[in-house]
Amino acid sequence: MTMTPLSPRVRVLEAAKDAVARRMRADADLLATAADWALMHPVTEAEAEDAAGWCFGEDLIPLAGQGAPWVAEFAPAELAAVLGWKTETVAELMGDALELAARLPHIYRDIQELRLSVSLGRYLAEQTRDLSMDGARRVDKMLRGGGKLTRPFIRRVVDEVRLYEDPDRAAADEQNALASRRVEVRPGRTPATLELVGDLDVADGVAFDQALSRVATVLGELGDGEGFEVRRARAVGILADPETALALLNSDRGTTGESTGRAGRADLVLSLDLATLADLATRGVIGPVDAGRYGTATSDLVKAWVTDWLGVDTRIVVRPVLDLTDPTTVRAVDGHDPPEAMAWYVRLRDPVCVFPGCTRTSRDCDLDHIEAYLPIVEGGPPGQTHPDNLAPLCRRHHRVKTHARWTYHRLPDGGYQWTSPTGRVIDTPPPRR
Prior knowledge:
This protein has helices at residues 8-39, 45-52, 75-83, 87-103, 105-112, 118-128, 133-143, 151-165, 167-179, 202-221, 228-239, 242-253, 274-279, 291-294, 299-310, 340-349, 395-403, and strands spanning 60-61, 71-72, 182-187, 194-199, 267-270, 284-286, 289-290, 317-319, 366-369, 390-393, 407-410, 416-419, 425-428. The chain is of the alpha+beta class. A four-stranded mixed sheet has the order 7-6-5-8. The protein has a three-stranded antiparallel sheet with strand order 11-12-13, with no helix packed on it. The two termini are 48 Å apart. One of its GO terms (molecular function) is endonuclease activity. InterPro entries: HNH_nuc (IPR003615). Keywords: Endonuclease, Hydrolase, Nuclease.
């Protein structure tokens, strides 16, 4: 039997795929050895008490969360010496491995069976260390099975479990975070620039981000030829001079009055499933503040945002969220652009770009017609715009799909199957909920 030789391009793609598979296997194996090494160096309470009596005795250290074995203090040093790594780096690796092996066993199995990357597994381990054993096991069950996990989704799930376990502590954490807000100006990579970093109240941070974009847009309309991001950076200096900023923004509105500040209207959108309703947990969007993007907030913090943004006497409009299990609740339309309810439905159903490997939030994506839209005046059929024919694609991957001969279709389980220009079939798993 004669085998058809692979084309050079296909050979390169296969080589890249094999290299990533080998790296995933190697990363998973290294994580397993780190867990094994930690478990080989337990310290009993009696040994710890004996060590405490010596000035330079070996102590025990808690590398992982509640219920995981404590580890001999000097154990990371030997493994670090063999690997040629810093001891601190190896201690972090051992801690993540122990957290996964001892407290997140399903996630650990997903990593070993290459259903989940080590990097995402370690990120999850960092997030769950402060949870109780029951809380960690709850997260483990909710996120097991691999699939298209993202860091924001992982953080949201852990935040919800933390809120469920100890609402008072979650509220205290929010207040402590607000109390530690700060802004720093640091030296840049060259003497020409500075680096601006900080922790802000969510509403203030979003307002600042919007103001930067607003000033950058006006600068572009006035003829500034710099790129949008450069104009946003210039906007920081303009906003530092209130009179200049007001003059610039008012020129855009054609008025001379002062800025009206924050918006006077907001929509409160609560995304609730039955389990969330039972636990009285809230994930929402407050006007321009997207709570889902920044984590799960307590109801007290949501109330504070509303009061701060709008004032206590402002009326809040609550929209019902569509039933994601029943696409027939959104009717097909003949026009190209989906109505607002349909757009909300699709973005809630698919929270990130559906291109393989992309994790950009669907709120920042275009809504693409899976089967290309053909205007009715040109012979297109009616009802082409409906949820089953729409999917969120970030601008980059929307252009790839449109101009680079990629095709895809939606699978019955909610995932997507893509076909590349070389004929390779790639599945994107359904979103995790």
